[in-house]
Design a protein that fits this description.
Keywords: Cell cycle, Cell division, Coiled coil, Septation. There is one protein chain. By secondary structure, this protein is mainly alpha-helical. Helices cover 90% and strands 0% of the residues. It is built from 1 helix and no strands.
Length: 79
């Protein structure tokens, strides 16, 4: 193998190593971003559940008020 061929091979190997290092850095960044998104997703799910409970409670109160109004509006029948 000639010196020129070895130099060419060395250059290709260095390019490959550089690309692998960049890919590894990108992967680490993507994993960190994924972790942040999973945490944010969990927080949003918890917040959504909390809002659902609040809406359910308000609807329950609204039903109670509607029932109270319906009872008050019923005409009293006397025999």
């Amino acid at each position: 193998m000639s010196i020129e061929s070895l130099g060419h091979l060395e250059s290709k190997l260095q390019n490959l190593i550089d690309k692998l290092e960049l890919t590894r850095m990108e992967l680490e960044e993507l994993r960190a971003a994924n972790t942040r998104m999973e945490q944010e997703n969990a927080e949003l799910k918890q917040e959504l559940g909390s809002w659902g409970e609040r809406v359910g409670a308000l609807l329950g109160k609204l039903d109670n008020v509607s029932e109270d109004v319906a009872v008050e509006e019923e005409p009293a029948y006397e025999a």
